[in-house]
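Example for tutorial group B:
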């Protein structure tokens, strides 16, 4: 009814949140559809540069993400904390959204402000299928964060043998050391993950 009475679909509150952002943040799919059909700006961001797409990606709202992408939402923008839609989806483990973003051309080698890649987030959170999808799209499995930690180091540290194996099969450097001189085998040994230590040791020999 409000939209039928010419309510402004892009009018924001003091934090520059639009009706579309509220709908995306709360997973209200049909309201998002109505607002977009009435011309709501899908790239209008708040004062911290959070976009409707970021909110939908961070909350796992798959259908809303699809609608926003179909309306031209920017999938490579960053907020003030240097999170991208892809990073939010990777961090929260939303595989289907990750695939949608990658298929639209999202940059999988963009870094968070600590140098964390989407692949590092996926390794740290133990999301095996997302790791596979990122590697399939060409993410650099040897690119390190600002402390010299590689995706393989995070996988070793978190004790996920399957992800360690996937990274090694994709060409991850098993002899790389961090800024403190810690090798992968040291991390695997120090964390007492026996299976993972054996996987790394076999690749070093």
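The residue assignment follows.
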């Amino acid at each position: 009814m409000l939209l039928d009475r010419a309510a402004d679909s892009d009018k924001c509150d003091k934090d520059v949140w639009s009706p579309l952002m509220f709908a995306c943040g709360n997973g209200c799919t049909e309201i998002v559809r109505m607002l977009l059909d009435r011309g709501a700006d899908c790239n209008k961001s708040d004062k911290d540069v959070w976009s409707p797409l970021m909110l939908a990606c961070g909350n796992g709202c798959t259908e809303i993400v699809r609608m926003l992408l179909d309306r031209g939402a920017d999938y490579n923008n960053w907020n003030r904390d240097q999170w991208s839609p892809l990073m939010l989806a990777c961090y929260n483990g939303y595989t289907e959204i990750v695939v949608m973003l990658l298929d639209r051309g999202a940059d999988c080698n963009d870094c968070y402000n600590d140098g964390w890649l989407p692949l590092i987030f996926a390794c740290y959170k133990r999301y095996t299928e997302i790791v596979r999808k990122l590697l399939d799209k060409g993410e650099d499995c040897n690119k390190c964060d600002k402390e010299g930690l590689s995706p393989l180091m995070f996988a070793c540290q978190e004790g996920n043998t399957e992800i360690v194996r996937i990274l090694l099969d994709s060409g991850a450097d098993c002899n790389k050391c961090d800024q403190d001189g810690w090798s992968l085998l040291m991390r695997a040994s120090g964390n007492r993950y026996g299976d993972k230590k054996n996987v790394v040791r076999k690749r070093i020999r």
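The mean pLDDT is 84. Compare this with the pattern of hydrophobic and polar residues in the output above.
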